[in-house]
Amino acid sequence: MAACALCRQIKPLKRSHLLPKAVYKRLRDPDAQNPAPVLLTGPKDFQGSHQAQQPLLCGDCEQRFHKYGEDWVLKHCAQDRTRFPLREILLGAQATSVTDQLSYFSCRAIPQIDAEALTYFALSVIWRSAVSSWQLADVKIPRNDLGPYEEPIRRFLHHESDWPNGCFVWVVVSRSTDIPLLANFPEVGRCRNWNSRTHRFAMLGIHFQVELGAGIPRAAYGFCLRQGPDRSIFHSHLPDRRVFDELSNRIR
Ligand SMILES: [Zn+2]
């Protein structure tokens, strides 16, 4: 028995994962010489069958994370090298804007996309990366710092309060025809153009970026998947960093 990091009640804790357990299985490439998953962990890339896991949440809070984020995201991210349901939905939908490098779609016009689940999941992963340090075999994954946003994010994830102020989420779906069966743990940096901190990670063809800060321009929120009027989702073959740099250059 110990205090659950989300509800803070003293309960038996489950072994929680930094990225969902099912991801590790899906990262295995049966055609590769070494079928163990490849995870880009920052300090060094990792290939092996270990998983970043530790006692963190009670059973009810684990279920909450499944129900409000993970279940939908796992069903819609890349399932293998040929099936990628979220991208298939976008390919069958009408984009709001299309350029060679980037298109975006309004989730309000595409009811099959659960923007709530995508954004809840994004916050749940970066929050997990901040409330504890994690370890993958001998690779220590540094603890991310959410600063004053950690507690409002916990309260939102536990459904005690609304979406936190100063919190902005972008999601980019890979357009690459060779579906990247890769994942990386959350990394943190400073946004070049806005006074905010950037937390990003990618998982099976979907790139998630959460900006936290009081300096995010008001115009940027128009493109936030949670708060924008269109609930925009992006589709691009550019690596996520370049997409975000390009967008944040346009909005200052
Ligand atoms: Zn709990």
Distance between the termini: 48 Å
Please trace the helix and strand order, writing H or E for each element.
Answer: EEEHEEEHHEEHEEHEEEEEH
| Principal-axis shape | globular
> Largest beta sheet: what is the strand line-up?
5-4-12-13-14-11-15-8-7
Please, how many helices?
6
Which ligands, by name, code or SMILES, are bound? zinc ion
Average predicted local confidence, pLDDT? 85
What does the main sheet amount to?
9 strands, mixed
Indicate the radius of gyration in whole angstroms: 17 Å
Helix content: 25-40%
Number of strands: 15
Task: Please state the structural category.
Answer: alpha+beta
The low-confidence parts are none
What share of the residues does DSSP label as strand, in percent?
Answer: 25-35%
